[in-house]
Write a structure and sequence with these properties.
- The structure is a single chain.
- This protein starts with 12 loop residues before the first strand and ends in an 11-residue tail after the last strand.
- The protein has an eight-stranded parallel β-barrel with strand order 1-2-4-5-6-7-8-9, surrounded by five helices.
- Helices cover about 30% and strands about 20% of the residues.
- By secondary structure, the protein is α/β, with parallel strands linked by helices.
- Helix 9 links the parallel strand 8 and strand 9.
- The model has no long low-confidence stretch (mean pLDDT about 95).
Length: about 240
Amino acid sequence: MMSDIAWLTERPIAHRGYHDMNKAVWENTLSAFSRAVDAGFAIECDLQYASDGVPVVFHDDDLERLCNIPGDVRAKTSAELSLMTIGGTKDRVPKLRDMLNLVKGKVPLVIELKGRAGDDDGFVESVLDTLEGYHGPVALMSFDHWLLRELKEIGVPYPVGLTAYGDKPEIWDRQVQEMAIGLDFTSYHYAHLPNPFTDGLRSKGIPVITWTVRDEAAIRQTFENADQMTFEGFDPRETKAA
């Protein structure tokens, strides 16, 4: 377990970059990441696995919502995806490498791997290969236990966290087991706080960040029960609740 990850909770984390709710600056684009760097916010982003074995920054399994065309993102190569516009803007689907070259360690990165059971061969290795040589704080996380286990088995040199939600004891029990492989933090849905699972982690000094905070009530919920927020749709520097 990583001992020094204080950087994870030092500043607000911009959900899918510092976008404007997909009006002019869209989620998971180089424009949103550049805007976050300029504001000094940490960046949360999502990775999908293109058909040529290259990790790309994209949230959805399909292209409809973000690119307005049908199709499975995993059926496209990274080169094909790099030609597709996001939301009709000038932004295209970026590779992980493109984002790293833009951020250059200026702000922390919290990277979520979007797994697909039975179709993730090589995904973890491709992410770690791309990250090799990158200088700057990076954490990796996922909802998907098989990816988390693979990261830990490889001996990943970055903090690894569980992305999660839940409001029932059986869910918390399963999450305790998932954390027991040596995970370093959790990113939890703010509306399901407080709960025994996250309270137990914090009592051991394990950080809890929240997702996705969009208003002052959610900010208060976060800072009463967790250590930092993943936010979107507002500027944390302008709110009284943070």
